Amino acid sequence: ILQMLYVRGVLCTNWLVVYQDVCAVRGSSVVIFCTYHYPEMVVNKNLTVEKVMWSQGRKQFFDGPFIIDSNNRTHTGTKFEYVGNKVHNCSLQIHQVEQRDSGEYAFRFETNNGGKWTGSNGAKVNISELIISMTTPKVHEPIKEGDCVNLTCMNNCSSAVMWFRNGKPLQEESSTLYLCDISFQDSGNYSCSPKHYNRPLSEVIRVNLIYFAFYICHNHAAYFCVLRKKTTAPKSDTEENTQVTICFKLFVTNYLLPAIGY
């Protein structure tokens, strides 16, 4: 006798497991969302779930070995974590995913009347690489102050990403970070991760700026000078000078030095 069970707005008369396929970036953690349903009563006996299991790979769907087994306390690894229950939630979390974690996963449960059910279709898990790249105005030439640099963070799961400079999050969430009219403040180590993941997962790209520098020796002192872009607005529309020279005194000597710059 198969009784009818009302679960979360669904009229359920069958044994059923429902999965959601997932895509995850290598190095992140992901949850396979899963629900399962079963008759509330069979042959006048109330059903309860006594054992839950998860397997990886189609050949292991029914007989294992299982990566999660609620009745086997030897499954103490930190890679896989059952975040469901013995009612209707069968979700599985996979920590620090790698390429070898891609494939199909299946949930299996057993009830107090000896009933066993496996969601044989399985949940598909795809692992994507996070690739970060940089585009500069001229290939194989150094970045200069005032240039425009584009950083791109790509993966096959989502276009929404988080950007980091020197390990600290930035506000930009698109897959391309535009650094236009670049200045010294933009220098640093850039990396990215999927949105809402609060630490970098990609490789690091270093953004370095070069400056025209020279030494000046005048009278009894030596100076180190750097040519920098002006940060203040021009005084008039005809003003074209956008650079300023900043000099630092290095040392003073008793000897008279020639005025030489290079």
Beta-strand percentage? over 45%
Mean pLDDT over all positions: 81
Write the CATH homologous superfamily of the largest domain: Immunoglobulins
Terminal CA distance reads: 96 Å
Q: How is the main sheet built?
A: 6 strands, mixed
The topology string of helices and strands comes to EEEEEEEEEEEEEEEEEEEEEEEEEE
Q: Please identify, by name, the CATH architecture of the largest domain.
A: Sandwich
How many helices?
0
Q: Key terms for this structure?
A:
262 residues, mainly beta, Immunoglobulin-like, 3 domains, 4-stranded antiparallel β-sheet, 26 strands, rod-shaped, disordered N terminus, disordered C terminus, Ig_CD22
Write a compact overview of the structure shown:
The chain is mainly β and 262 residues long. 0% of the residues lie in helices and 49% in strands.
Description:
By secondary structure, the chain is mainly beta. It folds into 3 domains: 5-128, Immunoglobulin-like (Sandwich); 131-210, Immunoglobulin-like; 212-257, no CATH class. Helix content is 0%, strand content 49%. It is built from no helices and 26 strands. The chain has strands spanning 5-7, 10-12, 16-19, 22-25, 30-32, 34-37, 41-42, 45-46, 49-56, 68-69, 80-82, 92-94, 103-111, 116-118, 123-128, 131-135, 143-144, 149-154, 161-165, 168-169, 176-179, 188-194, 205-207, 209-210, 212-229, 243-257. The strands form 9 sheets. Strands 4, 9, 10, 13, 14 and 15 form a 6-stranded mixed sheet that branches. Strands 20-19-22-23 form a 4-stranded antiparallel sheet, with no helix packed on it. A 3-stranded antiparallel sheet has the order 5-12-11, with no helix packed on it. A hairpin with a 4-residue loop joins strand 13 and strand 14. The chain starts with a strand and ends in a 5-residue tail after the last strand.
